[in-house]
Design brief:
The chain has 9 helices and 20 strands. By secondary structure, it is an alpha+beta fold. The chain has 2 domains: about 230 residues, P-loop containing nucleotide triphosphate hydrolases (Rossmann fold); about 120 residues, Nucleic acid-binding proteins (OB fold (Dihydrolipoamide Acetyltransferase, E2P)), CATH 2.40.50.140. The longest helix has 18 residues. Bound molecules: adenosine-5'-diphosphate (ADP) and magnesium ion.
Length: about 375
């Protein structure tokens, strides 16, 4: 187990900059998920940590020891890749024991570790098989088992589930989470799947174009995204982002959304009203939008928005209603029992405590 410290890690390939001064601090036992679109630098960062490639600048340390110049084998790190190469001629048992044999671990201890790993990953009945006799999910479990056989300071997983089908991904996700709970190991995990990131991480680093956009807990990243990119990337459905201007008067200040639609300016944005008609982006999660109830208080009625129902998408657990508010799209997550149809006019309210504001120019969060 270990603390990982990245200080301004930079990587250039010719004239492509794959990483821009990435700095991250990870405590012992944390589960860091690196998430972001394809090509944003996730694997490059993993390769720097593992020592498979050299940074152009910056330092990496593990438990206070600078490992930037160390060979991979000297770093005490175990890694699982997306394309998990098992040795085809070895049994499952031999595959799992292989890293231990390379490190000259005694036979009795090797056998014990293999038993422990096999029981954690429910591979006991497969130990005598060859990789070709296993399903994709079983092979992936063996690859993870091989990484777990050793007890390194740090585990690195680079999109370990991306070759699996949807149901298996879900099962494996739960297994990996359980594994982390029982091992209390420090893990860095790469995915481009933002739901995987939300469910597994103790902390998330959202990356784009080699730059860490936000480094925070899943809760922070979801509720208080640092910018509109993070807001749009994390969560399903993505956060609603509506253009607005701030205006005073008429009992305001208000966020004018266009077409006469307006929201009360949340307390957190109070300073904005003094700046006049600033252009802002209003961020609202779908679950912060609700239908105005019959018998709602007059204040709630005044704050409600008129919306036209555009598309209704039942998901089973709830309904996602895509609404048109003054010409802009607003998705609401609603009770599955409400009956809505396309074209219907409804009144909705937005929880002001759950609104976040972004500067329209910089796209960074204001409040
Ligand atoms: N060995 C390399 N040589 C040149 N460019 C590379 C190399 N490895 C990665 N890149 C570039 O660096 C960027 C980040 O790639 P990568 O880290 O693989 O992204 P991700 O894992 O997030 O999909 C991409 O633009 C990619 O083309
Ligand atoms: Mg990658």
């Amino acid at each position: 187990m270990a603390r990982l410290h990245l200080n301004k890690v930079h990587k250039r390939y010719g004239n492509v900059t794959a990483l821009h001064d990435v700095s991250l601090d990870l405590d012992d036992g944390e589960f860091l998920v690196l998430v972001g679109p394809s090509g944003c630098g996730k694997s490059t960062l993993m390769n720097m940590i593992a020592g498979l490639d050299e940074p152009s600048g910056g330092r990496i340390s593990l438990d206070g020891r600078d490992i930037t110049e160390l060979a991979p084998a000297e770093r005490d790190i175990s890694m699982v890749f997306q394309s998990y190469a098992l040795y085809p001629n070895m049994t499952v048992e031999q595959n799992i024991a292989f890293p231990l044999r390379m490190r000259k671990v005694a036979r009795a201890e090797r056998a014990l570790r293999v038993q422990q790993v096999a029981s954690t990953l429910q591979l006991g009945h497969l130990l005598g098989r060859k990789p070709r006799q296993l399903s994709g999910g079983q092979r992936q479990r063996v690859a993870i088992g091989r990484a777990l056989a050793r007890e390194p300071r740090l585990y690195l997983f680079d999109e370990p589930l991306s070759n699996l089908d949807a149901q298996l991904r879900l099962d494996m996700r739960t297994q990996i989470k359980r594994l982390h709970q029982s091992l209390r190991a420090t893990i860095v995990y790469v995915t481009h799947d933002q739901i995987e990131a939300m469910t597994l991480a103790t902390r998330i680093a959202v990356m784009k174009d080699g730059v860490v956009q936000q480094f925070g807990t899943p809760h922070e990243v979801y509720h208080r995204p640092a910018n509109t990119f993070v807001a749009g990337f994390m969560g399903s459905p993505r956060m609603n982002l509506l253009r607005a201007t701030v205006s005073a008067g008429d009992g305001g200040p208000w966020l004018q959304l266009g077409g006469g639609a307006r929201l009360a300016l949340p307390q957190a944005g109070a300073a904005l009203s003094r700046r006049g008609t600033d252009a802002v982006i209003v961020g609202v999660r779908a679950e912060a939008v609700a239908l105005l109830r019959d018998g709602a208080a007059p204040a709630a009625r005044r704050a409600a928005l008129q919306a036209r129902v555009d598309v209704v998408e039942p998901t089973g657990a709830d309904i996602l209603a895509v609404l048109d508010v003054g010409g802009q799209e607003l998705t609401a997550r609603l009770d599955p029992e409400v009956s809505l149809h396309s074209g219907q006019i409804v009144a909705v309210c937005v929880d002001p405590g759950r609104v976040v504001l972004f500067d329209a120019r910089s796209q960074q969060r204001l409040a």
